Sequence to fold (966 residues):
Amino acid sequence: MRFLLSAIVYILYYFYLYGVASENEPIQTFVIPHSHMDVGWVYTIQESMHAYAANVYTSVTEELSKAKDRRFIAVEQEFFRLWWDTVASDSHKRQVRQLVKEGRLEFIIGGQVMHDEAVTDLEDEILQMTEGHGFLYETFGVRPQFSWHVDPFGASATTPVLFALAGFNAHLISRIDYDLKDTMQTKKKLQFVWRGSPSLKERQQIFTHTMDQFSYCTPSYLPFSKSSGFYWNGVALFPDPPKDGVYPNMSLPVTKETVHAYAKTMVENIKQRAAWFRTNHVLWPWGCDKQFYNSSVQFNNMDPLINYINRNSKEFGVTVQYATLSEYFQAIHQSNLVWEVRGSEDFLPYSTEPYQAWTGFYASRNVLKGVARQASSQLHAAEVLFTRYRISFPDGPVAKDWALDKLRALRWAVSEVQHHDGITGTESPKVGDMYLQHLTQAMMGVKELLAAIFLLPHNLDISNILGSHYHRKGVHQALEQHVIIYNPLAWNITTIINTTVAFPAAVVFDDDGQPVPAQIQRSALSNVTYDLFIMVNLGGLQHRKYVIKFFQKPCSGRSKCAWTYEAKAVVFERRRVRDWTKTGRRLLPVLNECYKLMFDQDTNLLHSITYLHEKRRVKMTQDFWEYHANGYVDAGPISDNYIFSTKGLAERAYKAVEMEIIPGKIVTEIRQYFYREESDKDYAFSITTRVPECLGSKVQCHRLEQTYTLGPLPINTEVILRISSSVKNNRTLYTDNNGYQMMKRPYTTFANNTVARNYFPMVRAAYIEDELSRLVLVSDRAHGVSSQASGQLGVMLHRRLWNNLPWNLGYNLTLNDSSVVQPTLWMMVGSKSATSKLYQREAIELQHRPVVMPIDQPQKPWMEKEPRGSSHERSVELPPNLHLLSLSIPGWNYSSDHNVHLSDIHSGKDLHSEPDYDRVLLRIMHIFEEGEDPELSKPVTINLKVFIKIRLDSFIFNVRGKSCIK
Fold:
C-alpha cells in the first residue's frame, strides 16, 4: 500500500511538473514565417542586398498588407536598416509602420546582428543590441521582447542574462550538443527557465525554448517531390536575381492535386515535433537561409495549405495559423505549467556529430578577432572623450554632426562583425576582407575625431598644446615629437606604454615639463627601429601631452638622458631539443617586486615562477605545440573554419630555441625564438615577455605581458601555446563567458573526439588552480583553451587549414589563413585570494589600454611664446570594483513620453529630425561576482554628478547582484 501511494504521488507530481496535453484537443500549430539572413558569411553585405535581402523586405511588406492573417518576424537589423534607408519607398514605410503597430510584423532580437555567443565580448554584445534597439524605438516606438538565437554555434549563459536585462520575455536557442538535444527531446525538456547568472539567480531568469532537431528551417524533404519542401520561391541566386523570377529548386505549387500530400507531410512533421514538448502548442518555423525574397509565391502557396488543414482539422488533429513569437509564447504562458529551472551552466562547446566539435572557430582568423577588439576599444575611448567634450564645450570647434558621423560609422562596423559568421572567423575570405575594411576605415575616421578633440582649442590656448609655430634657431638641437596619451578608463592608472621610434636615444617630458622615467632598446620586430617604454601616470578619463626629444647617437652617461635607460641585450646560445638530456642545472633569475622568474639556460625555456609575497614556487614551461589535420575527407575527420578535429595528440612544433634577455629599469624583456628545424635561419614562433621593473612605483608588478608571433603556418596546422606547470588542477579549467562571468570546465572523456571536445572559448580570461596557487591568463582577443593534462593550459593561437570537402570548397570555407599573428596575453600567478582581486580589472585594462597618439613627426623644437602650462583636465575615478561600461551620445531623437513618441510616429509627419546631443547614455558595471571577494563583491554607492551634468536617459538593472546603470 505504501508503494502504491508513493506511485500515485509521483504520477501526480509528474503531471504537475511536465503536463500532459489532452488527446482530444488538436495540436495548435504556430507557423512562424522568417528568413535567416546572415550579415556576411559567404557573400558580402552588398552582394546579399542585391541578390535577395532587399527583396525580402519589399515583398514581405507588400504581401502582409494583402491579408490580415499573415505574419513575419524580422531578426537582424542591419539588412532591414539598409533597406529602410536606401530602398524602401514612402509607401513601404507607411505600410511597415502600420504592420508593426498591428503586431503582424514583429522585430525579434532587434540587434544589428544575431551575435555569436562564444567569442564575443559583453561590451560589444551590448553595443550591437543598443544600435538596433535605438533605431527600432526611434523609428517605430517598439522594443523587442523575444530572442531568436537559432544559429550561433553553442549557447552562452551570458546571453539569457543580457536578454533578461534588456527586458525580453523569452529566449530561443537551437545549436546545442547533438547528444544532449536528443536526450532533452526524449524527456520533453527543451523548454526551461534559465538562471544564467549565479549571482543574480532568479532576479534575472528567462523562459528559454530550445529548437528541436529540425532547428530553424522547414523540413526540406517531400516524399512526393524531388524539390525542397515548403520553399516555393526556391533558392536565392547570386550575383543577380533571375529576370524571369524563376529560381532553382522551387517547390511544386499547392494545387488541388498536391494539397493533400503537402498537408499530410506537414501534419506528420507537426505531430513528430509535438511529441517532444509538454504542451499541445508547436512552433513551426517556416523559412530558412535566404528565404522570402519572393513572398508572393510563398504566401500564395501556404495560404491554401493552411486553409485545407484547418478545414480538415478533426481528421488531422491539428490546427494551423500564421503567428509571431509573441503569439506563440503567449499561448505557452497561458498553459500555466511549472517549468524546470536551469542554473548558470552554458551549452558550450557544441558538437553536431561525434567528430564534429565546433571548437575550431574559437581561434579562426586571429587577425580579425584582434582588429575587432581594437576597434571596440577605440570606439569606447572616442565615445567617452566626445561625450565629455560636448558636456564641457557644447559650442567647441569640433563639429558635432561630423563627430557623430564618425562614431556612428565605427558603431556600425563593430556591431556588424559580432555576427555569428563574423568575429568567429567562419566566413569566406572576401567577407573577412569586408569586415576588416569596414573596421579599419571607420577606425581611421575616429582617429581623426580623437585628434580634433585633442588638438583644436577649447578652454586652452593652442600654444599650450603644441607651442608656437616658430622653430628655434640653432643647428645642434634635438628633434622633438609630441604625443598625446589618453586613459579611457574611469580608474587612475600608472602603467608602461611602448612606442616605436627611429632614434637610439631619447628623453621624455610630461606636460608640466618634468622628465619622465623611460627606457629605450632595439625593437623586437626590426633592426632599424627602437622600442621606447614610457612610465605614465594618468587620472581616470584623462589625457596628457608628452614631449619626446630624440638624439642621433646613444647618450648613456650624459645628464640630459639620465631619466632614460638605454637597455642592451644579452644573447644566449641556440639550444637544440635533442640535447635536452640534462636540464635545470643553470637557472637564470629575473626578478621584480612580485615575482622571481627562472629561465633554464640548458633549454632557453621558462623553468619556474615564484610569487614572492607568499614565497611559493610554481614550476612552469611555455612552448609551442601543434595539431595536424586531415586534408582529405577519405582519410578521416577534417578541421575547417568551424570544426577542430585532430589526427592525434599535439606534437612539439620546434627543434631549437634561442633566447635573449634585455635587463632594464622600466621593464626587463625576455625574447625567445623557436625554430622548426635546428639550422633554420628564420624563427617560426616567438614569445616576448615583459617584466615590469619599476621598484617603488605604482606600476602593476604582477602583470607579466607576453606577445607571441607566429605564422605563416604550414597547411593543416593548428598551433597552441602550451603552459605546463606544477599546478594540480586535475585537468579542470575556468574560462570566462563573454567577459561577464567565469565557468568551471572539468575535463570530460568522450567515446570519440575527446581532445577537440575539451576546448573552450576564452574571450577575456582563463585560469587553472589548485588549493595553493592559481595561474591566470587574460587576453586581447578570443582564443580556444584547454587543459589536456594536469597542470597544462593550452591556448590555440592560430590555424591554417585546407580540405577537399565539396561544401567547404564550394563556399571557400577551408580557412587557408596565411597571416602572421601577434596576440598578447597578460599572465599572473598567485594565490586564489590574491588573483581574485586582480584578474577582472586586468582583463579590462588590457582591453582598454591607453590611447597613444603621436600628433606630429620628429622635427626641430618650436619656439614657445610663453612658458608651457599643465593641460590636466579633471579626472574621474570610480571605485576599483566598478567599470565605466558606456558613456556616449547615441544621437537618438524622440520624446521621453512614450505616448507622445508613438503619436509622432503615426502622425505621418516627417521624422527626420536633428540628432539629440543632450541625451547621454551611461552604464556602470560591477565587475565582481557574488562571493568572489569579501570586500570587492559588495554593492557600491556612487554619486553620478561626478560624471555628468545634463539629462540622463537611464534605468537601473542588476549585474552580479550589484547596480549597473544604463
Q: What stands out?
A: Confidence is low (pLDDT under 50) at residues 1-21, 460-472, 865-870, 950-966. The longest helix spans residues 366-392.
